[in-house]
Specification:
Blueprint lengths: L1 H17 L12 H11 L10 H10 L13 H13 L7 H17 L1
Helix pairs in contact: 2-4, 3-4
C-alpha cells in the first residue's frame, strides 16, 4: 500500500512538472515586489550582484509590507522570493530529492 501511494504521488509530481506547475503553496508576494527583487538582484554577469541584505534593507526603507505580515524583510525571505521567481523552486519541494526518490523507486520496480 505504501509503495503504491509513493508511486502514485511521484507520478502526480511528474505530471505536474510536465504541465509546468510548481508544487507547493502559491506565493502571496505581489508581482510588483517580485519584479523589484529580481531586477535589484541583477542578471548581468558583467556587473556585481546586489546582496540579499541590501535588497531587504531597501524594501524595509521603502515601507514595503511582507506577504506574511512580518515586521521586516529578511535577507532569507528576499532570497526565497528570488529563487521561486527565477527557478520555480519552492521550499520543501526539492527537485533533486524527487528525482533521487523516483530513480530509486524505478530501480526497485525494475529489479523485481
Amino acid at each position: 500500500m505504501e509503495t503504491e501511494m509513493s508511486a502514485a504521488r511521484l507520478e502526480g509530481l511528474r505530471r505536474s512538472r510536465t504541465a509546468g506547475l510548481t508544487p507547493g503553496p502559491k506565493s502571496k508576494v505581489p508581482p510588483a515586489v517580485v519584479d523589484r527583487i529580481v531586477a535589484e538582484r541583477g542578471t548581468d554577469p558583467e556587473l556585481p550582484l546586489t546582496g540579499w541584505r541590501t535588497i531587504a534593507a531597501g524594501l524595509n526603507a521603502d515601507g514595503v509590507a511582507t506577504a506574511q505580515g512580518a515586521p521586516a524583510w529578511s535577507p532569507a525571505t528576499v532570497r526565497a522570493v528570488w529563487l521561486r521567481a527565477t527557478t520555480g523552486y519552492a521550499r520543501g519541494s526539492s527537485t533533486a530529492t524527487i528525482t533521487v526518490v523516483a530513480q530509486q523507486t524505478d530501480t526497485q520496480w525494475s529489479a523485481s
